Each structure stands twice: as structure tokens, then as C-alpha cells.
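User: Need the bound-state model for L34:
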Amino acid sequence: MAKILSGKEVSARIKEELKQEVAALKEKGIFPGLAVVIVGDDPASRVYVNSKKKACEDLGIYSEEYALSAETTQEELLSLIDTLNHKKEINGILVQLPLPKHLDEESVIQAIDPKKDVDAFHPVNVGKIMVGNYDFVPCTPAGVMELIHESGIEVSGKECVVIGRSNIVGKPQAMLLLHENGTVTICHSRTKDLKETVKRADIVVAAVGKPNFITGDMIKEGAVVIDVGINRIAPKTLVGDVDFESASKVAGAITPVPGGVGPMTIAMLMKNTVKAALIQ
Ligand code: L34
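Assistant: Bound-state model below.
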């Protein structure tokens, strides 16, 4: 049976450390502040944004929430971002994705001051990650790296297979693994022989958004399996992209859903917000 990589526990530890750091910063007159923008009423986004606000409260980080109606125009949203870019109390700006269809995500992200881009989605920050000299790491891939470190596995020289090529997870995840000298393969919907490719991996990161897509027969004995998927298959049932039941029988270490990567994402956002305050 695989070791369970509890993001819930690891994130609690990280947040405890950050809490001390925030208290020390405040003594020096530095007060980290985060603005979270949510547009529309996607229930999942609401849950995540609430967790982000709660984490700020727990750590003593100042936060502002802007909950905009689903009918918000592009101009209104850009105008809010402009205000936040110039607002002294705000060190980090996060626009919760996805946005309603009529809004252009790319230009919204580009409007955020890269120094306040705690998601690291702005092309300037994306480019810095590519080069390997960066301040902010996207929260989910950063959380995955922390969990991999936590499993005690060295990435260097290992076969790493990332399933999914999104800008938010797959692509930056591949870069972070590469920076630690992993041999990285990115799989996606057009990949031939997905099973054979995943089977080679010492480290598997699944970020495809398909419930229970990666099954135990695709996993190499002893591999580290990180499940980024959060799929709601029934009102109260969340499952990952990995079939935990079968995969946990062959993996050496595996993350659960919930309680795996999700809480780590939030801890990493807090880390980036503290960093943003330090940089500014
Ligand atoms: N801008 N948009 C922006 N930044 C992000 O970093 C995100 N993401 C993703 C969606 N959109 C975003 C998040 O915050 C996904 N995500 C996220 C954050 C937290 C959790 C899941 C996804 C989380 O806390 N998950 C819990 C379960 C929560 C539930 O019950 O629904 C878990 O234990 O996995």
C-alpha cells in the first residue's frame, strides 16, 4: 500500500511557518495584502475563493474580495485590475478562473501588474519560469513540487510524466520538474500509447480533468503519483484524475483527493503573497 501524501497536513505545516513570517514582517511595518476577484457564481470557484480568504485570515494576511456579477464587462474588470495595480495595500492580485465566456481571460491576465501576479499567469512570469529565474511559481505546480519533495524522492534523473498541457498546470509543472533535472514527458489527448508512457514514469502528475482516468495498471510499481484532478461526480463526491483504489495498490506514494494538491495550492498562494509583499 502506497504512502499517502497528505496535502492537508503538509499545507498546515507550511501555513504555520508563514504565519510566523507574517507576524515578523508586520513588526517591520510590512503588511501583506491580497485581492481576490471572482466573476459570476461558479460554485466550485466560490469554494476555492472562500478557502483563500480563510487562509489569509488564519495567517494574518490582509485580504479584499471583489465578487462581481456574471454580467461584468471586460472594461469593468480591466478597470478594477488597474485600480488594484495601483493600490498600496494590495501586494497580490488573483482573478479566479475560469471567467464567464464573454470575458477574454488572456487580456485580463495581461492587465495584472507582473509584480502583483501571485498566480504567475502573466506572460512575463511565464517567461521567467521558462528561463528558470523567477519570483512567483504557479500555485498548483508549486504545491505539487512540495509534495514530491515531501515524499522523499529526488527528481533528478527520474522519468517524470505529466498528463495534461494546460497553461495553469501541465506546462509550468513540466518546467519545474525539468529545473530539478527530471526527464520530462508531457502527455495529452493526442498522445499515442498513453499507458506505455505513463508506465515508464517514476513520477506521474495527472492534470487532465477526467475522473479516475489513470488506473493502477498504468502505474509502475513504486512510482510517486500526484493527482491534480478535482472532479465533482456527484453533489458531495469529489474524485481525482487517478483511480485511487487501483493506483494506490502499486504506487510508492500517492496523493488523495480531496486533501492532496488542493490545500497545497492555497498554501502556495499564501507563500506567493508574502513574497510579493517582500518584493514590493
Ligand atoms: N486564478 N484560478 C486562479 N488561480 C488558481 O490557483 C486557481 N485554482 C484552480 C481553479 N482556478 C484558479 C485553484 O485555486 C483550482 N484551484 C483549487 C484551489 C483549492 C482547491 C481546489 C482547487 C481545494 O481546496 N480543494 C479541496 C476540496 C475543495 C472542495 O471540497 O471542493 C481539496 O481538498 O482538494
